[in-house]
Amino acid sequence: MNATPAHSPTTIASIEAIIVDLPTIRAHRLAMTTVNQQSLVIVKLRCSDGTLGIGEATSIGGLAYGEQSPESTQLAIDAYLAPLLIGQDAGNVNAAMALLNRQVQGQSYAKSALETALLDALGQRLGLPVHALLGGAVRRSMPVLWTLASGDSGRDVEEALGLMEARRHRVFKLKIGKGEPAANIAHVAHIKRALGAEVLITVDVNQAWDEATAQGAIAALEQAGVGLVEQPVPRRHRAALARLAARFDVPIMADESINGPEDALELAQEAAADVFALKISKAGGLLNTLRTAAVGEAAGIGLYGGTLLEGSIGSIASAHAFAACPQLRWGTELFGPLLLKDDVVTQRPDYRDFELHLSDAPGLGVSLDEDKLAHYRRDRQRTQVAVTA
Ligand code: MUC
Ligand code: MG
User: Fold this and answer.
1) 281, pLDDT greater than 80
2) Are residues 185 and 297 in the same domain?
3) Distances in whole angstroms, Cα of residue 127 to Cα of each of 83, 192, 362, 365
4) What residue's CA is closest to ligand 1, atom 7?
């Protein structure tokens, strides 16, 4: 009888986390920060068979949006997460993520980037797109809204009209919560009037109001014809969120209040939101995003494909997860790559006819442009000095 050689799995051989700083096409103004460049952590995960999986993590305005920054994400990967993964089975994503979750608290952005890279590598090895690894795509393309956040109402209207004309976007989100609520409402009403009844306008307050302010302001926003209000109060003020959701007809969306399935369960039990904003970064990966979506679906809550202003790798990774969601009633805001002047991938995502289209290429279907990566990496100066010294 022939001896069967012992099965030796493909293992994780090396992991690199590189920060790149990419300029934006214009300043992007939110309640808590103004974004002029996006700092992305690009993960390169090399397997023992030579396959390269890629992933990405980012944030908005350093530590302005959440408790994790690109720098802390890079450090968490280098010092803690990568050493745990090296030598592990590269084909068992569930086991790899369980190991990380057992040994490292938090760090959802870093975990999301690493899981993305593992899924990308596995998909390439099996010849399957990531959405097939997640059980299959319910949709191959998804609507993408655009955020009007130039800080100027007139410029925002012009921007929206141009994007509708180009068939890029027909739903617009306005970032409010900075300055006086009355000025915010006037800004929203102006844009809504200019774009017309047919155009869905949503607003994101990014936690900036207290409950009393939110009560008055949401009543006025409803009057102005706003179709969705995102995170009007601080993330931990869930009882206030629930009272607002009960009080108003306009749907209230939880964003900062929801990370993973545990939050989804509590928010659903408390009837604290009509819509959940899903983000792979908040959930700590694509698989946990789908678990979060499943809780929302079970509770009859609308799902929305959110962004942390990821670049092309993070946006396409998000799109693979959102493609596999049971429903996506509120579409997506995966416009991050379009806000960037330049990119570190060879082919940018396919946006047309108001939607983002996913390919069936193996893995993520995205390749790194190594020249661009070398150009935009933050440690370029230091690397050059080290080489020439
Ligand atoms: C957020 O809070 O939703 C999404 C779109 C945008 O402009 O900012 C992000 C963050
Ligand atoms: Mg938001």
Assistant:
1) yes
2) yes
3) 28, 46, 5, 11
4) 147
Q: Is residue 280 part of a domain?
A: yes
Report CA torsion sign: 189, 149, 146, 305: negative
Nearest to 279 by CA among 314, 252, 251: 314
- Beta bridge partners of residue 61, listed in sequence order: none
Considering every ligand atom shown, identify the ligand nearest to the alpha carbon of residue 60 and give its number: 1
Instruction: From 98, 127, 156, give the residue that closes a domain.
Output: 127
Look up 56 and say whether it is catalytic: no
The pLDDT, as a whole number, for residue 191 is: 97
State residue 316's pLDDT score: 98
In this structure, which residue's CA is closest to atom 9 in ligand 1? 308
- Ligand 1 atom 2: residue of nearest CA: 206
Answer whether 59 contacts ligand 1 (Cβ < 6 A): no
Catalytic residue among 256, 297, 333, 355: 333
Where does the pLDDT of residue 167 fall: very low under 50, low under 70, confident under 90, or very high at 90 and above? very high
Query: Is 385 within a domain?
Result: no
Regarding the beta carbon of 256 and ligand 1, being less than 6 Å apart is answered: no
Same domain (yes/no): 238, 328: yes
Q: 347 near 357, Cβ under 8 Å?
A: no
214 shares its domain with 140 = yes
User: Which residue segment(s) compose the domain that 47 sits in?
Assistant: 12-127
Per-residue pLDDT band for 8 (boundaries 50, 70, 90) equals confident
What number does the ligand 1 atom closest to the CA of 335 have?
5
Q: CATH number, domain at 121? A: 3.30.390.10
Total of domains in the chain: 2
Longest Cα pair distance anywhere in the chain, in angstroms? 83
Of 32, 59, 147, 156, the residue with max ligand 1 atoms within 8 A of its CB, to mutate for a pocket test, comes to 147
Kindly state whether residue 365 falls inside one of the protein's structural domains.
no
Task: Give the mean pLDDT of the chain.
Answer: 96
Tell me which of 95, 127, 159 is where a domain ends: 127
Backbone angles phi, psi at 327, to 5 degrees: -140, 160
Structure tokens, 154: 């007139």
Annotated catalytic residue, options 111, 175, 192, 279:
175
pLDDT of amino acid 1? 45
Q: Is residue 384 part of a domain?
A: no
Same domain, 154 and 257: yes
